[in-house]
Structures are given as structure tokens and as C-alpha cells.
Amino acid sequence: MVVRYLVRDVPELAEQAAGVIDGGADFWITGVALAEVSYVLRSVYQMPREIVIDHLMAFLGKQNIDCYGLDKGTVLQALLMCRPSGRTSIADAMIWAAARSSGRNVVYSFDSRFPTEGIEVRAAL
Fold it and tell me: Where are the alpha helices (H) located in 44-121, listed in sequence order?
């Protein structure tokens, strides 16, 4: 639904999605869904990374949009980490946002490029 809303390539579906998203009722989305939307926009629609991030940030900027289990401000901060370069993937940014939103601030990863701002990245137990 979010892809159709952002891309508007199928007018009937875009209109239905807009009816739900712009209808004023609360619309909740997961970090996984945001990562999936970014993947589809990049791989299927060949959108540049910066445009995808701009679309996601504008979408999340809507008053009625919120994130399941994630602080929306933290998700926006995570997306900003992705914008300057290809170093941080949007999926990793959503994992980072989940760690920050949980208050645990720990992620286990062997990825040396994983974002470390405000969290501890552990490679092994």
C-alpha cells in the first residue's frame, strides 16, 4: 500500500492507498515494512537512494503515521544516517532504530559498517 501511495503508478490503487493514508486515521507501520518499501523502490522502480529516503521521511512526517515499537523521531534519525552515503543500509538503520527505541542500545553484528551512534555493537558474546 505504501509503495502505491508513494509511486502512484497504478491510479486506482494509489487512490485507495491515499484514502487510507490521508484519511486522517492513525496509520501504523513497522521498521520491516519501511525496509521493504525502500527495497521495492530501489530495486523495482530504480529510484536513487536519496529520493527513497526523502519519500520515506516525508511519509513519516505525516501527523497520522506512527511506527510499531519504534520511536518515530529515532526512525527519522536512522534514515538520515542513510542519506549521506551508501554505507548504512536502510535495513541496518531500522535495526539501529529498534535498538535505540528499546532502550537496550545493543546490537550483535559482524558488520564493521553497522552504525554505532548511541549504541554498542558486539561481534560475539
Answer: 49-60, 72-82, 90-102
